[in-house]
Input
Amino acid sequence: MEYMIMIISFIPIILISIFIPYVTRRTDSFGVSIPEAVYYSEELRSMRKRFAWQTALLGLVLVLLWWLVSIPVSLEVETVVFVCALFTFLFGSFVLYLIYHHRMKTLKARKAWGEPRSEVVAIDTAFRHGKIMVSLGWFTIPLGIALVTLICSFIFYQHLPTRIPMHYDMKGHVDRWADKSYRTVMSFPILQLYMTALFLFINSIIGKSKQQIDRENPEMSVKRNQLFRLKWARFNFLTGVLLVLMFSFMQLSYFIEISLTLTLVVTLSVVGLIVIGAVVLSFMTGQGGSRIKVGEGKQGEVIHREDDRYWKLGLFYFNRKDPSIWVEKRFGVGWTINFANPIGWGSLLVIIVIALLIPLLTR
Output
Protein backbone atom coordinates (compact mmCIF):
# COMPACT_ATOMS: atom_id res chain seq x y z
CA MET A 1 0.00 0.00 0.00
CA GLU A 2 2.85 2.39 0.82
CA TYR A 3 4.25 1.89 -2.72
CA MET A 4 0.85 2.82 -4.15
CA ILE A 5 0.72 6.02 -2.11
CA MET A 6 4.18 7.06 -3.29
CA ILE A 7 3.48 6.22 -6.92
CA ILE A 8 0.21 8.19 -6.82
CA SER A 9 2.25 11.14 -5.52
CA PHE A 10 5.15 10.88 -8.00
CA ILE A 11 3.75 9.82 -11.39
CA PRO A 12 1.26 12.71 -11.84
CA ILE A 13 4.02 15.23 -11.06
CA ILE A 14 6.21 13.68 -13.76
CA LEU A 15 3.37 13.62 -16.32
CA ILE A 16 2.38 17.23 -15.64
CA SER A 17 6.00 18.37 -15.97
CA ILE A 18 6.39 16.52 -19.28
CA PHE A 19 3.36 18.04 -20.96
CA ILE A 20 3.38 21.60 -19.59
CA PRO A 21 4.78 23.07 -22.87
CA TYR A 22 1.77 21.59 -24.71
CA VAL A 23 -0.91 23.16 -22.51
CA THR A 24 0.44 26.72 -22.25
CA ARG A 25 -0.94 29.47 -24.47
CA ARG A 26 0.18 29.39 -28.09
CA THR A 27 1.42 32.95 -27.59
CA ASP A 28 3.91 31.73 -24.97
CA SER A 29 6.81 29.31 -25.21
CA PHE A 30 8.89 28.38 -22.16
CA GLY A 31 7.89 31.61 -20.42
CA VAL A 32 8.62 33.85 -23.43
CA SER A 33 5.93 35.65 -25.47
CA ILE A 34 5.85 34.74 -29.17
CA PRO A 35 3.62 35.34 -32.23
CA GLU A 36 0.98 32.60 -32.30
CA ALA A 37 1.85 31.70 -35.90
CA VAL A 38 5.36 30.52 -34.96
CA TYR A 39 4.10 28.19 -32.22
CA TYR A 40 3.68 25.45 -34.83
CA SER A 41 7.04 26.01 -36.50
CA GLU A 42 9.34 23.00 -36.73
CA GLU A 43 11.92 24.72 -34.53
CA LEU A 44 9.51 25.19 -31.62
CA ARG A 45 7.92 21.75 -32.11
CA SER A 46 11.38 20.24 -31.80
CA MET A 47 12.09 22.20 -28.61
CA ARG A 48 8.87 20.98 -26.99
CA LYS A 49 9.59 17.37 -27.95
CA ARG A 50 13.15 17.50 -26.61
CA PHE A 51 12.01 19.03 -23.33
CA ALA A 52 9.29 16.37 -22.95
CA TRP A 53 11.66 13.47 -23.65
CA GLN A 54 14.40 14.80 -21.37
CA THR A 55 11.92 15.39 -18.53
CA ALA A 56 10.44 11.91 -19.02
CA LEU A 57 13.91 10.35 -18.99
CA LEU A 58 14.80 12.20 -15.79
CA GLY A 59 11.62 10.99 -14.12
CA LEU A 60 12.08 7.38 -15.31
CA VAL A 61 15.68 7.21 -14.08
CA LEU A 62 14.74 8.57 -10.65
CA VAL A 63 11.77 6.21 -10.28
CA LEU A 64 13.97 3.22 -11.19
CA LEU A 65 16.71 4.34 -8.79
CA TRP A 66 14.16 4.81 -6.00
CA TRP A 67 12.73 1.33 -6.66
CA LEU A 68 16.16 -0.36 -6.74
CA VAL A 69 17.43 1.38 -3.61
CA SER A 70 14.18 0.75 -1.70
CA ILE A 71 14.08 -3.05 -2.18
CA PRO A 72 16.46 -4.04 0.66
CA VAL A 73 15.75 -1.20 3.13
CA SER A 74 13.21 -0.35 5.83
CA LEU A 75 10.11 1.76 5.22
CA GLU A 76 11.70 4.76 6.96
CA VAL A 77 14.74 4.70 4.66
CA GLU A 78 12.51 4.05 1.65
CA THR A 79 10.46 7.15 2.50
CA VAL A 80 13.61 9.28 2.76
CA VAL A 81 14.82 7.95 -0.61
CA PHE A 82 11.41 8.73 -2.14
CA VAL A 83 11.44 12.31 -0.84
CA CYS A 84 15.00 12.79 -2.15
CA ALA A 85 14.00 11.39 -5.57
CA LEU A 86 10.95 13.67 -5.71
CA PHE A 87 12.88 16.83 -4.86
CA THR A 88 15.68 15.83 -7.24
CA PHE A 89 13.11 15.56 -10.03
CA LEU A 90 11.56 18.93 -9.17
CA PHE A 91 14.97 20.60 -9.12
CA GLY A 92 16.13 18.81 -12.30
CA SER A 93 12.97 19.69 -14.24
CA PHE A 94 13.33 23.31 -13.08
CA VAL A 95 16.92 23.42 -14.37
CA LEU A 96 15.73 21.93 -17.69
CA TYR A 97 13.07 24.63 -17.91
CA LEU A 98 15.65 27.37 -17.30
CA ILE A 99 17.83 25.98 -20.10
CA TYR A 100 14.93 26.03 -22.57
CA HIS A 101 13.76 29.43 -21.33
CA HIS A 102 17.21 30.86 -22.12
CA ARG A 103 17.22 29.17 -25.55
CA MET A 104 13.77 30.58 -26.27
CA LYS A 105 14.83 34.13 -25.34
CA THR A 106 17.89 33.81 -27.58
CA LEU A 107 15.79 32.48 -30.46
CA LYS A 108 13.23 35.27 -30.08
CA ALA A 109 15.94 37.95 -30.17
CA ARG A 110 17.56 36.34 -33.23
CA LYS A 111 14.22 36.13 -35.08
CA ALA A 112 13.21 39.69 -34.00
CA TRP A 113 9.82 38.52 -32.73
CA GLY A 114 9.67 41.23 -30.08
CA GLU A 115 9.81 44.36 -32.23
CA PRO A 116 7.88 47.33 -30.75
CA ARG A 117 5.40 47.46 -33.63
CA SER A 118 4.15 44.02 -32.66
CA GLU A 119 3.09 44.88 -29.13
CA VAL A 120 -0.63 44.35 -28.54
CA VAL A 121 -2.88 44.42 -25.50
CA ALA A 122 -6.63 43.81 -25.81
CA ILE A 123 -9.29 44.37 -23.13
CA ASP A 124 -12.98 43.44 -23.21
CA THR A 125 -14.92 45.63 -20.77
CA ALA A 126 -17.87 43.19 -20.85
CA PHE A 127 -15.66 40.18 -20.09
CA ARG A 128 -16.85 39.69 -16.50
CA HIS A 129 -20.53 40.00 -17.41
CA GLY A 130 -20.45 36.38 -18.60
CA LYS A 131 -20.51 33.40 -16.25
CA ILE A 132 -16.88 32.81 -15.31
CA MET A 133 -17.08 31.44 -11.77
CA VAL A 134 -19.32 29.42 -9.46
CA SER A 135 -22.09 31.36 -7.70
CA LEU A 136 -21.37 31.98 -4.03
CA GLY A 137 -24.55 30.15 -3.00
CA TRP A 138 -23.07 26.81 -4.06
CA PHE A 139 -20.46 27.11 -1.32
CA THR A 140 -23.20 26.68 1.27
CA ILE A 141 -22.93 22.95 0.43
CA PRO A 142 -19.39 22.41 1.79
CA LEU A 143 -20.12 24.95 4.54
CA GLY A 144 -23.23 22.98 5.54
CA ILE A 145 -21.29 19.69 5.57
CA ALA A 146 -18.61 21.27 7.78
CA LEU A 147 -21.18 22.71 10.21
CA VAL A 148 -23.06 19.39 10.46
CA THR A 149 -19.76 17.64 11.21
CA LEU A 150 -18.96 20.27 13.84
CA ILE A 151 -22.38 20.08 15.54
CA CYS A 152 -22.48 16.26 15.52
CA SER A 153 -18.99 16.15 17.01
CA PHE A 154 -20.21 18.26 19.95
CA ILE A 155 -23.41 16.25 20.40
CA PHE A 156 -21.69 12.84 20.42
CA TYR A 157 -18.51 13.97 22.16
CA GLN A 158 -19.18 11.77 25.22
CA HIS A 159 -19.18 8.63 23.05
CA LEU A 160 -15.56 9.12 21.98
CA PRO A 161 -12.78 6.89 23.36
CA THR A 162 -10.37 8.48 25.84
CA ARG A 163 -7.54 8.50 23.26
CA ILE A 164 -7.89 9.56 19.62
CA PRO A 165 -5.61 8.52 16.72
CA MET A 166 -4.08 11.65 15.21
CA HIS A 167 -1.63 10.31 12.62
CA TYR A 168 -0.92 7.11 10.67
CA ASP A 169 2.33 5.86 9.17
CA MET A 170 2.70 4.65 5.57
CA LYS A 171 1.54 1.15 6.58
CA GLY A 172 -1.66 2.44 8.16
CA HIS A 173 -0.51 2.05 11.77
CA VAL A 174 -1.28 4.76 14.31
CA ASP A 175 1.98 6.50 15.25
CA ARG A 176 0.56 9.45 17.21
CA TRP A 177 -2.28 9.55 19.74
CA ALA A 178 -3.93 12.41 21.63
CA ASP A 179 -6.08 12.52 24.74
CA LYS A 180 -9.73 13.27 24.07
CA SER A 181 -10.53 16.98 24.25
CA TYR A 182 -12.81 19.40 22.47
CA ARG A 183 -9.76 20.96 20.85
CA THR A 184 -8.52 17.72 19.28
CA VAL A 185 -12.01 16.64 18.20
CA MET A 186 -12.52 19.98 16.44
CA SER A 187 -9.41 19.58 14.24
CA PHE A 188 -11.23 18.16 11.21
CA PRO A 189 -14.29 20.49 11.39
CA ILE A 190 -11.99 23.53 11.70
CA LEU A 191 -9.95 22.25 8.76
CA GLN A 192 -13.20 21.84 6.79
CA LEU A 193 -14.19 25.44 7.47
CA TYR A 194 -10.72 26.60 6.44
CA MET A 195 -10.87 24.57 3.22
CA THR A 196 -14.31 25.97 2.39
CA ALA A 197 -13.05 29.54 2.87
CA LEU A 198 -9.91 28.76 0.85
CA PHE A 199 -11.80 27.34 -2.15
CA LEU A 200 -14.24 30.25 -1.99
CA PHE A 201 -11.22 32.57 -2.17
CA ILE A 202 -9.79 30.64 -5.13
CA ASN A 203 -13.18 30.95 -6.86
CA SER A 204 -12.92 34.72 -6.41
CA ILE A 205 -9.38 34.69 -7.82
CA ILE A 206 -10.59 32.84 -10.93
CA GLY A 207 -13.28 35.44 -11.50
CA LYS A 208 -11.25 38.56 -10.77
CA SER A 209 -7.79 37.73 -12.14
CA LYS A 210 -6.38 39.82 -14.99
CA GLN A 211 -7.89 39.06 -18.39
CA GLN A 212 -5.67 38.20 -21.32
CA ILE A 213 -7.19 38.44 -24.81
CA ASP A 214 -5.71 37.86 -28.26
CA ARG A 215 -6.33 40.93 -30.42
CA GLU A 216 -6.25 38.96 -33.68
CA ASN A 217 -9.32 36.95 -32.65
CA PRO A 218 -10.84 38.73 -29.64
CA GLU A 219 -14.34 37.22 -29.81
CA MET A 220 -13.12 33.61 -29.81
CA SER A 221 -10.45 34.47 -27.25
CA VAL A 222 -13.02 35.89 -24.83
CA LYS A 223 -15.26 32.83 -25.20
CA ARG A 224 -12.34 30.45 -24.64
CA ASN A 225 -11.14 32.34 -21.58
CA GLN A 226 -14.62 32.52 -20.08
CA LEU A 227 -15.09 28.77 -20.56
CA PHE A 228 -11.61 28.15 -19.15
CA ARG A 229 -12.39 30.07 -15.98
CA LEU A 230 -15.81 28.50 -15.56
CA LYS A 231 -14.50 24.94 -15.98
CA TRP A 232 -11.71 25.50 -13.47
CA ALA A 233 -14.08 27.26 -11.06
CA ARG A 234 -16.39 24.25 -11.17
CA PHE A 235 -13.46 21.88 -10.69
CA ASN A 236 -12.28 24.01 -7.76
CA PHE A 237 -15.76 23.78 -6.20
CA LEU A 238 -16.03 20.01 -6.68
CA THR A 239 -12.52 19.57 -5.24
CA GLY A 240 -13.58 21.51 -2.15
CA VAL A 241 -16.73 19.41 -1.70
CA LEU A 242 -14.80 16.13 -2.09
CA LEU A 243 -12.15 17.16 0.45
CA VAL A 244 -14.75 18.35 2.96
CA LEU A 245 -16.64 15.05 2.58
CA MET A 246 -13.38 13.12 3.01
CA PHE A 247 -12.66 14.96 6.28
CA SER A 248 -16.21 14.19 7.47
CA PHE A 249 -15.54 10.51 6.79
CA MET A 250 -12.28 10.71 8.73
CA GLN A 251 -14.08 12.45 11.61
CA LEU A 252 -16.66 9.66 11.59
CA SER A 253 -13.87 7.14 12.19
CA TYR A 254 -13.41 8.73 15.64
CA PHE A 255 -16.94 7.69 16.63
CA ILE A 256 -17.42 4.33 14.93
CA GLU A 257 -14.94 1.63 14.01
CA ILE A 258 -13.91 1.85 10.36
CA SER A 259 -11.27 -0.46 8.93
CA LEU A 260 -7.93 1.05 8.00
CA THR A 261 -8.23 -0.50 4.55
CA LEU A 262 -11.49 1.33 3.88
CA THR A 263 -10.03 4.58 5.22
CA LEU A 264 -7.01 4.29 2.92
CA VAL A 265 -9.19 3.36 -0.06
CA VAL A 266 -11.47 6.37 0.47
CA THR A 267 -8.55 8.76 1.00
CA LEU A 268 -6.55 7.53 -2.00
CA SER A 269 -9.66 7.49 -4.20
CA VAL A 270 -10.50 11.11 -3.40
CA VAL A 271 -6.92 12.33 -3.84
CA GLY A 272 -6.44 10.24 -7.00
CA LEU A 273 -9.70 11.51 -8.49
CA ILE A 274 -8.70 15.13 -7.86
CA VAL A 275 -5.21 14.67 -9.34
CA ILE A 276 -6.49 12.82 -12.43
CA GLY A 277 -9.24 15.41 -12.86
CA ALA A 278 -6.71 18.26 -12.74
CA VAL A 279 -4.48 16.57 -15.33
CA VAL A 280 -7.38 15.80 -17.68
CA LEU A 281 -8.85 19.29 -17.35
CA SER A 282 -5.44 20.85 -18.05
CA PHE A 283 -5.29 18.98 -21.36
CA MET A 284 -8.91 19.76 -22.20
CA THR A 285 -8.63 23.51 -21.61
CA GLY A 286 -4.97 24.46 -21.95
CA GLN A 287 -3.83 27.70 -20.33
CA GLY A 288 -6.42 30.44 -20.71
CA GLY A 289 -8.65 28.09 -22.75
CA SER A 290 -6.11 27.78 -25.57
CA ARG A 291 -7.17 24.17 -26.28
CA ILE A 292 -10.93 24.78 -26.14
CA LYS A 293 -12.69 24.67 -29.52
CA VAL A 294 -15.32 27.40 -29.83
CA GLY A 295 -15.23 28.31 -33.52
CA GLU A 296 -13.02 29.26 -36.40
CA GLY A 297 -10.55 32.10 -36.28
CA LYS A 298 -7.33 33.04 -38.02
CA GLN A 299 -3.98 32.64 -36.32
CA GLY A 300 -2.34 35.76 -34.98
CA GLU A 301 0.33 37.38 -37.11
CA VAL A 302 1.58 39.67 -34.36
CA ILE A 303 2.84 39.08 -30.88
CA HIS A 304 0.13 39.10 -28.23
CA ARG A 305 2.00 41.48 -25.93
CA GLU A 306 5.60 42.35 -25.20
CA ASP A 307 5.89 42.20 -21.40
CA ASP A 308 8.75 39.72 -21.04
CA ARG A 309 10.65 42.27 -18.96
CA TYR A 310 8.05 41.87 -16.20
CA TRP A 311 8.34 38.08 -16.13
CA LYS A 312 11.44 37.05 -14.20
CA LEU A 313 12.67 33.70 -15.57
CA GLY A 314 9.29 33.48 -17.30
CA LEU A 315 7.74 32.38 -13.99
CA PHE A 316 7.50 35.36 -11.62
CA TYR A 317 5.43 38.39 -12.64
CA PHE A 318 6.78 41.62 -11.13
CA ASN A 319 5.15 44.79 -12.43
CA ARG A 320 4.65 47.77 -10.10
CA LYS A 321 2.66 49.61 -12.80
CA ASP A 322 0.05 46.84 -13.03
CA PRO A 323 -2.65 47.01 -10.31
CA SER A 324 -3.60 43.38 -10.96
CA ILE A 325 -3.05 40.97 -8.07
CA TRP A 326 -3.59 37.67 -9.90
CA VAL A 327 -2.43 36.89 -13.44
CA GLU A 328 -2.28 33.81 -15.66
CA LYS A 329 0.89 31.76 -15.49
CA ARG A 330 3.29 32.00 -18.42
CA PHE A 331 4.39 28.37 -18.06
CA GLY A 332 1.69 25.93 -16.99
CA VAL A 333 -2.04 26.14 -16.30
CA GLY A 334 -3.54 28.34 -13.62
CA TRP A 335 -2.74 31.63 -11.94
CA THR A 336 0.08 33.28 -10.04
CA ILE A 337 0.46 36.58 -8.18
CA ASN A 338 1.91 39.89 -9.24
CA PHE A 339 4.91 39.79 -6.91
CA ALA A 340 5.13 43.59 -7.00
CA ASN A 341 1.70 43.89 -5.38
CA PRO A 342 1.81 43.65 -1.55
CA ILE A 343 -1.82 42.47 -1.44
CA GLY A 344 -0.81 39.32 -3.31
CA TRP A 345 2.01 38.65 -0.86
CA GLY A 346 -0.26 39.42 2.08
CA SER A 347 -3.03 37.06 0.98
CA LEU A 348 -0.56 34.20 0.46
CA LEU A 349 1.00 34.88 3.85
CA VAL A 350 -2.40 34.78 5.59
CA ILE A 351 -3.27 31.47 3.89
CA ILE A 352 0.04 29.89 4.92
CA VAL A 353 -0.07 31.19 8.51
CA ILE A 354 -3.62 29.92 9.09
CA ALA A 355 -2.72 26.52 7.59
CA LEU A 356 0.24 26.28 10.00
CA LEU A 357 -1.77 27.44 13.03
CA ILE A 358 -4.63 24.94 12.67
CA PRO A 359 -2.60 21.81 13.59
CA LEU A 360 -0.82 23.72 16.37
CA LEU A 361 -4.04 24.98 17.94
CA THR A 362 -5.88 21.64 17.73
CA ARG A 363 -3.23 19.44 19.34
